[in-house]
Amino acid sequence: MKFQQQTVLITGAAQGIGRGLAEAYAAAGAHVYMADVQEKEGEELAQTLRQKGWSATFVPCDVRKEHQIQHFVQAAIQQTGRVDIVINNAGVSRWKSPLELTIEEWDDVLNINVRSSFLLSREAAKHMKSQEQGGAIVNISSTRSLMSEPHSEAYAASKGAIVALTHALAMSLGPQIRVNCVSPGWIETQNYSALRTEDHEQHPAGRVGTPQDIARACFYLTDPDNTFVTGTYMVVDGGMTRKMIYEE
C-alpha cells in the first residue's frame, strides 16, 4: 500500500523492463504515467492496465526532445497535482565496431540513454522540491557499465554515464529527493520458457532474471520509508558480475 495514489513516471514503458515496471507500480495502486515512442504498444498497455482497475496513462514521448519530456511531466501534474517517483528506463543500443560507428549513432545513444535521464529528472525535480515528501528517482543503467563485450562502446559509455549522473543528482537534489540507480544483468523480457538450462545455471542465483526482479529493486529504492538510501548503485544480475570465469 506504500505506493497507493503515488504518481509514477516511467520512460520506455511500452515493452521490456519498462512494461514490467508499469505493471508492477499500477498493481501496487500508483497512478502510472508511461512514456514511449511506440504509441500503439503504449496505448494498448495502458488500456490493459485500466481494464484491471488500475490507474494508467500513456503519453507519446520522444525522450530526445526536451519539450516532449516537459509535456510528459505536465500531463501527470495536471491530472494528479504531483510527481512522486521517476524511473528513467528508456534506452537503445548500437552493436557496431567503433571503427564504423558514426558520430550520429553515438550521439543518438547518448541522447536517448543519458540526456533524457537528466532532462526528465530535472523537470520532475522542479515539482518534487516543493512537495512535503519530496520524491524518488531511479535511473536504469546496466551491468555493461562495469564490463563489456566488443562493439558496445556507445551503450557502455551511456550506461556508465548514468551511474555518474545518479550520484551527482543525489548530491544536488537531496535531501528532499533521493536518486538511485539499478543496473540489470540478463533480464529476459520475451520468451522465458525458451531459455536453456545452461542459461540459468551459469548464474550464481540459478536463473535468468525477469522484469519483476527489477521492479522489486525499484520498489525498495522508491519506498517512502527508505529515506536513508540515496546515491547508491544496485546491481541486479543474479551474481554474474561477481563470478570469475576462466576457459578450461
From TrEMBL:
The organism of origin for this protein: Paenibacillus algicola
Domain of life, source organism: Bacteria
Record protein name field: Short-chain dehydrogenase/reductase SDR
Family note: Belongs to the short-chain dehydrogenases/reductases (SDR) family.
Key words, A-Z: NAD, Oxidoreductase
Ranges annotated as spanning the membrane: none
GO molecular function per UniProt: oxidoreductase activity
Alphabetized Pfam families for the sequence: adh_short_C2
GO biological process: bile acid metabolic process
PROSITE patterns, alphabetized: ADH_SHORT (PS00061)
Record-annotated Ketoreductase domain positions: 6-189
UniProt lineage: Bacteria, Bacillati, Bacillota, Bacilli, Bacillales
